Amino acid sequence: MRIHRLLSTIMALTGLAWATAAAAASSIFLLDTDELTYATVFEVDQSTGRLTTLGSLPLPTDVTLGLAASDDRLYAVTQSGEVLQITPRPFRVVSIGNIGANAIVGLAFSDGLLYATDEATDQLYVIQLTPVSLTIVGEVRLGSTGGPVLDIDGGDLALDAAGSWYLWTNGTEDAYLLDVTNAVAVQLDPATAGLGAKSGLTFDHQGDGGLVASSWRLDALLTLDPATGATVASVNFWLAWPAAYDAHYGDLASARSASPPRATPTSTPTATSTPPPATPTPSFTGVPLTNRLTASTAVARGRKLYQTYCAYCHEAGSAGFVRQTAPRESIHAIRKAIAEVPQMRFFRGFFTRRELRDLVRCLRSVSRGLGEP
Q1: What DSSP line would sit under 278-304, residue for residue?
Q2: Which of 47, 86, 342, 373 minimizes the number of CB atoms within 10 Å of its CB?
Q3: Helix (H, G, I), strand (E, B) or coil at 29
Q4: How far, in Å, CA of 200 to CA of 56, rounded?
Q5: Cα torsion through 308, 309, 313, 314, rounded to 10
């Protein structure tokens, strides 16, 4: 009996000490969402993967895939453009402005500004917080301002202690160094690619300074080699041990005690970093969507999906026409329609996220062709 009590006491004290140390060491935050029914912010213990729920963002009214951290606040941007300021404890969410419809997936904070990547436009943005405004740096390009456009598909941005910017995109499943003044990316290690999809990327600024990423495929927090982007260690997310937490999409962020100096981006993209605007067409209504598409690969894939699954009900003049698809639809809007419109429920779980993203790119290429923001 005494041995049993002694063992129980030792286990309890060990668990208390472990939990206290874990909470003290943690400075990493995870945003996780299924893009339809929930968007939850957690605090993450890097050493164990333990999640502590902080609170939820407003859903199902909008989608938020980007999360950034300053010294004492978190920031998120919704696809409708709301810039959210989040107080972790006690949990509080306040909208401080709106930047307009977007498909932001990567978000990071530095020196009073938010830096963001958009998977519908492949562009890098800078968001000023007071007052809220958005500056387009340009399309993210490889090697130089005249290089090929890098396919931004999910992923994230992260800033290390020395002031170097890192970019992850699931378009190549690889990591890059990013110059935020001109949106030029350089692959970390030319010998790597296909390193697995990541939803978030950050440096553990208040911990060991390591580069970490979140993986929804593995439901895990990964430690990456900052020289190559390759995974060197991993630990599963969990809320109730030993069951792994089923992660979906979202982002990682880590607060830092001080920000390094930054270079000020230009407010107007140069001619070498931004392609010329498409020639506007006079009207959206009644003009076949298939005649107003750009030639990018993602848009071409989206056009094929649109023609196969959407045109019958959404193309003006078709036999089953219901209404024309809005040119600024979001992934969330499409998911919501599939969940709520009886005629569309057949497609529930049918499209992959990449296919939904391609559909959005297809529709937004129409928007850009009309000269809309």
Answers
A1: PPPPS-STTS-GGGS----HHHHHHHH
A2: 342
A3: strand
A4: 18
A5: -80
Instruction: Tell me the C-alpha to C-alpha distance, in Å, between residue 260 and each of 30, 186, 325.
Output: 23, 21, 44
> Is the distance from CB of 24 to CB of 42 less than 8 angstroms?
no
Of 134, 184, 138, 188, the C-alpha closest to 160 is 188
Report domain 2-254's class: mainly beta
Residue 253 has pLDDT above 70, yes or no: yes
pLDDT of 345: 78
Determine which helix (DSSP H) or strand (DSSP E) holds 14, and give its type and residue range.
Answer: helix 2-25
Give the model confidence (pLDDT) of 192-244 as tens digits.
888 988 999 999 988 888 999 999 889 999 999 999 999 999 999 999 998 99
Q: Write the CATH number of the domain with boundaries 289-369.
A: 1.10.760
Report pTM.
0.70
Distance CA 78, CA 73 (A): 17
2-254 and 289-369 share one CATH topology?
A: no
Domain ranges of the chain: 2-254, 289-369
Helix runs in 166-280, H state only? none
**H/E element holding 336?**
helix 331-340
Q: Which residues pair with 75 in a beta bridge?
A: 68, 85
Model confidence over 321-369: pLDDT tens digits? 776 665 445 666 677 777 778 878 778 767 776 777 778 777 766 544 4
Cβ neighbors of 279 (< 8 A, separation 6 or more) are: 369
Say which residues have a Cβ less than 8 Å from residue 227's Cβ, sequence separation at least 6.
188, 189
Question: Who contacts 277 (Cβ-Cβ below 8 Å, separation ≥6)?
Answer: 368, 371
Question: Is 133's pLDDT higher than 90?
Answer: yes
Question: Two tokens at 111?
Answer: 């020196």
